[in-house]
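Q: I'm teaching a short session on how sequence maps to structure, and I want students to see two examples side by side rather than one. Could you give me a first protein with its sequence written out and its structure tokens following it? Keep the formatting plain so it prints cleanly on a handout.
A: Of course. Example one:
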Amino acid sequence: MMRVFLSGVTALLLSACATAQDGPFNDWLNDFRPRLAQAGASPQTVDAMLDGLEPDLAIIERDRDQPEFVRPLWEYLDIAASDQRTTNGMSAFGENRQTLLAIEERFGVDAEILVAIWGLESSYGAIMGSNDVVQALATLAWEGRRRSWAEAQLIAVGQMLDRGFAYREQLTGSWAGAMGQTQFIPETYLARAVDFDGDGTRNIWTDNGDALASSANLLARAGWTLDAPIALEVAVPQDYDLSNWAPNQSRLVAEWAASGITRADGREWSNDEQVRAARLILPAGLRGPGFLTFANFEAIKRYNNSTSYALGVWLLSLRVGGGGEIVQGWPTDDPPITRSQTRELQEALLAMGHDPGGVDGIFGPNSRRALMAFQRSRGMIADGYAGRLTYDAVMAAN
């Protein structure tokens, strides 16, 4: 029997819920067991995965807990590329140099990037999560919000076990089912994990070579180009015309340069840079640093589809290599708004005829376009940044 140890009032509440929900969980379990077998899992694997399994109600609590506060990017980057993480990354690079360079040569992925991803995903193997992955995924499947996804991951776990890639006891990771030093979900493990040392296993838990090579394989399959740029910090004039700009719009660097965008470090654009396609992102609006991002940046987002994450990986990789400073200041007086404020913003924009594409508290491309339309209608800088200052302006106008 699997147990979850909690403390205080939360433990009492979850314990009470567990008794009431044992039946429904068993209903899901009894329904899924034959489907796992039909998907190809051996009887021994089905039993090893599902016998005695109980839900972990703390997983449901985590899954439903959408944080109200949105961390400013500058605070996230301070953590992602902190002095301690950088120092640890340099040590990890030195201790694994021969392996990293061999992986770089085989897969064509820069070693510093692999170290940076390693650092962000598991603190260089120190923090991989201690949740039972089968229990976590079964709990998510039973809850139902992401049932199809979670069941697909459990089927992938069955394939991992039957193919001898892992032992049942190895399957620990995050509450969301991500595993090992690379934090791969099971389907990604099957598709991208690598047996780098040729011992017959894809050990992303305790084998640094397998873990790092697996990350390299994922990036290589996502189109990574060795020694190519990832991102460059740029200075964007405060009066820059953003009327036709969108974060997913690509132009040659030469075109961006001709429009008035310069390198933040004051250097001239190289000939190689000018002929590359790049996107302009303004994660904190025109008052903050701008960045031109290249194809390798998009490859990082295949690992984690987050601009903040990709910027964190890029910055940490630079610092592990001995550089990496953002030159321009951040608008610390204009932090991003909370989720409830985003819903209020979306409601106000919709009421004024600027359709944000839904009122869900998530500031996506449609909300950005709606906010830019509002900013243009008020003669404001139309950068689409949902900071506190613009929020106050929208609320005052509604």
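Q: Perfect. Now a second example for contrast.
A: Example two:
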Amino acid sequence: MRHGPRGAPTRDVLLVSAIITISLSVTVVLCGLCHWCQRKLGKRYKNSLETVGTPDSGRGRSEKKAIKLPAGGKAVDTALVPGQTPHDESDRRTEPRSSVSDLVNSLTSEMLMLSPGSEEDEAHEGCSRENLGRIQFSVGYNFQESTLTVKILKAQELPAKDFSGTSDPFVKIYLLPDKKHKLETKVKRKNLNPHWNETFLFEGFPYEKVVQRVLYLQVLDYDRFSRNDPIGEVSIPLNKVDLTQMQTFWKDLKPCSDGSGSRGELLLSLCYNPSANSIIVNIIKARNLKAMDIGGTSDPYVKVWLMYKDKRVEKKKTVTMKRNLNPIFNESFAFDIPTEKLRETTIVITVMDKDRLSRNDVIGKIYLSWKSGPGEVRHWKDMIARPRQPVAQWHQLKA
């Protein structure tokens, strides 16, 4: 080795030392980056696990559309593992294969398959209160015969009110304020787009009285076993219609007004046990029930029907609470329901008023299934998403 004056290192030795120092520095930096990358990848993978574990989170809902249920009822998983986007191929290779397999298996479990969770379902539930379908009808007046003619033509996009996913619609026709005299169309079985093409005549009706009336159409779903379910209504003042010739209208159906006011609410919980193939319904309490008796009170009790494919399978009922509009029941009932039958199952809960001298009165009903109203569907989905856990929710009683 060559040395300069007084033993100082030469230029070559200094150059070699500098290269070694830079190499060591680069190695340290790369090691730090490597650990940082591992932490980032680990965090991303952890987030994907958390997303699957919380199906009620906002991210979980948007990614449930990876699971679609065809008509046959078998699940088809056609999308990516939640938390992974198409450009994450390099990240996915760093994840343990067994963990990814566990993720997919958890998503394709039978319980999640039975829970309707696509974005299309969410959108449908959100608008089901608004979209009640529409009805087409014609109105005209014959001055020579003093006769008002009303033709009920057809309806479109009616909501399903029956357990089978359809309705049996018919139309009632009134000339308000007279509600005693009404006319009705025929019932169209299992039809959400019915065609009636029926003509109704209000004969001997002076024109001066006709223009003081309101044509009121109410579309209902016929029910052989209980009270008919209202679907929607349309009203049109006849003084705003040119009756000299037949006028045809398309009108959106609006929610039926209930002149009797609120029927009250019921708090109940649902608990599904997939291993035992059972649902436990706990009738907890009610509040602000409608008074059905002359004394301004009611004697409520609750009936719980298990329905499968439009057929009544099993019935349970609570005790009667005398003269109480805010009763506390706290009674539980277990129903055997195999997992493969959940999609065709409906639980019908009816709050009744006990009457010793006459027929018991219906205060209100609740239909619980995966295809009921928005609130009921939410409760049903929460029950399926959280097996073996009681899920409680308040429900508004309906006519």
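Q: What should students look for in example two?
A: Point them to this: The chain has eight helices and 18 strands. Also worth mentioning: Confidence is low (pLDDT under 50) at residues 33-129.
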